[in-house]
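Forwarding these from the shared drive since the link keeps breaking.
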Amino acid sequence: MAGLDQSSQGDDSSLMSSINITPFVDVVLVLLVIFMVTAPMLVKDILEIKLPKTASGDGQVVQTLGIAVNRDGNILLNGVLADDETLKSAAAQALAKNSESQAIVSADVEVAYGKVVHVIDLLKSSGLNRFAVQIEHESKK
C-alpha cells in the first residue's frame, strides 16, 4: 500500500466528527420559497370553486374577509365552514376593528344566484357595505 497517505491509515483523529448542515438548510429554504409561492394558487383549487370570467375588472381590493360559496352552497369564511350567524358576527367584528373593512365574495358558477344574494344580504345586515365579487378574466381569443 505504497500509494496511501500516511494520515488515512487507521488514524481516527482525522475523521470528521461534525455534520455540515449548510446544504440541508439551503434545500429547506428553497422548498419553503416554493411552497410560499404555490400556496395561494392552490387555495382556489382546494375549495373547488370555478369563478365566473369577465373581460374587465381592476383587481385592486384589500382583503379583510374571504367568503366563498362552494358548488354545494356551503359558506366558507376564510376557508372554514361557517353558518349565517358566524358570518354576521365575523363581519361585525371586522367593522369594529376597522370601519374601512372589506370582504371578497367568491362563488362557484354553479351556485344559485339567490345563495350569493343571501350572503351579500348577511354582510349588509351586519353593517359591512364594502365588498367585492371575485372573478377571473376571460382569455381573449
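-- next protein --
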Amino acid sequence: MSPDATSRSRGRYWGSFRFWLVALVAVLALAMVSTPSASSSAQRVAHLETLVKCPSCQDLSVAQSNSSSALAVRSEIVAMVAKGESDTQILTTIEAAYGSSVLLSPSTSGLGALLWILPSAVFVGLVVTVIVLRRRR
C-alpha cells in the first residue's frame, strides 16, 4: 500500500471517528438539556409522580392514575417534598415500602445497573469490531 493510500485511509477513519464523536456529544448534550428541572416543589412532585408506578395499576404512573393506592403514593410524595427530602431519598423510601418494581425506570445500582451499562457496552463493542474489520482490509 502506498503512503498516499495509507494517509487517505487514516483520513477517512478519523473523519468517521470525529463524526460519531460529535454525534455522541450532541446526543449527550440534548439529553442533559431535555432533563426536566425540578425547581419548584410542584414541579418536583409532578416529576416524581411520573417516575413511580401505581401499585395497583398496570403500566401507569401515579400521575396518570386516580386509584386509591396512587392517591396515597401521591400524598406521600407531597409530604416528603414538604419535609425537604431529596428526590433520591423519596424514591428510595417508596421503593422500600412498595418493592423494587414500583419504579418505572430501573435502578442504577446492583442488577439494575446492567440495564444501563449493557447497551453502551454493546455499542462500544460494535464500534471496536467495525474499526478492527476496517483495519484488516
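The two ends are 11 Å apart (CA to CA). Residues 38-105 form a domain with the Helicase, Ruva Protein; domain 3 fold (CATH 1.10.8.640).

- D.
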